[in-house]
Every structure is written in structure tokens, then in C-alpha cells.
Amino acid sequence: MPRVTGVRWAGRKADRGSRFSVLRLSKCSSDSAHSSGSDLWPVWPSARSAGPAKLLTVWRRAVLEVFPAAGIREPVRASALAGAEERLGRSLPAELKQLLLESDGLLGRTHVDTVWTLDQIVERNLLFWTDESFAQLYMSFDAFLFFGDNGGGDQFAFVQKPERADVFVWEHESDSRRWVARDLQDYLGRSLRTGGDDWYRQW
């Protein structure tokens, strides 16, 4: 496994011979994976339906309702978001931008980076997309926009090619990519409410 500054790794290398057999981009068939999420997320206005005045508080309020000890940071500036998108060469998902305008990343249970800071999002995605050693070990990450991790090497991402709201997990030991949440709100509800960092493996 290559040594990468700023990215935490655990476990062994992926088996190059089996990587193509474990790619799973279809949604989980588990009933729990397709639940409405009403038991996982408080009843706050959706960030997608909230008016401009509510967008400045809806994410913070909802996060703290699920997990009062969540690590909230200072918000990023709109100019910083624009600069990040220019460096990445693509737009960030709308819900992620709205959250970052309220808090520059989120610390979840056991202080994992449930949502990375804007700087981490830029630096780590550029690394995943361009690092030659990754290209030799794993299938392409070009379709993904990573934004958080579980503290043990697995990373969470949006699929942007084609663009969709769903959240997937990349499991670094097997190079599998599988569906874990309908959107950012569903992801936060599931990851912050459950006790373990491997919450996505419980289905």
C-alpha cells in the first residue's frame, strides 16, 4: 500500500486480480438500505426545499439534533467554494456546498471526519484522480467526488458521472464501491446516529 500523507489507511492491498469482480454500483437490496430514513433523521426542513433564510441554519440544527456532540466548524466563504471548484475542474454537489457554508466539515462519533473540510475535499480528490500508484492498484476514481471517511481507510463519495445525489462507500481493502445512502442528509442521519464507524456494514 503506498504511503500517502493526509489519508489514513488500514489493512492490506487490494487483490488486483479480484478488483473487477467486486465493483458494485447498484443500490443495496436490503430493505433497511431503502428505508425512508424518517427514523434516522429529525423532522427539519429539507435543505433542498428550505428558503434562503433557512439555509444558513438547517444543516447545523439537523446535525446537532441527531448527534449533539458533533464537531461543528466555522463556515467557509462562498469565494473559497468557487476557488475549490476551479481547482477541481468540476462543481461540488449543491447539498455539500450548503453544508460547507454552515460548517467547514463535520466531526462525527469517535472524532471521525464524517465530512471533510473544503481543503481536504480538494486535496484528497486531486490525489485520488491523479496518483499513478492508485491507478495501478484500483479502478478509476474519476466518477467519484469523495467528501468523508470512516477513520479506517474507507471513503464516502458522490457519483458525478452520471451525476446523482446518492452516497457510495469505497472499501479500500477490496476496492468495492457500493451504495450506502440516498443523499447527503440520509448519509448524515445514518452515520451520526449509529454507534460504530462501520455502520454501513450492518446491512
TrEMBL record:
SMART domains: SMI1_KNR4. It comes from the Bacteria. Residues 75-190 form the Knr4/Smi1-like domain. Gene3D superfamilies: SMI1/KNR4-like. Pfam families: SMI1_KNR4. This is SMI1/KNR4 family protein.
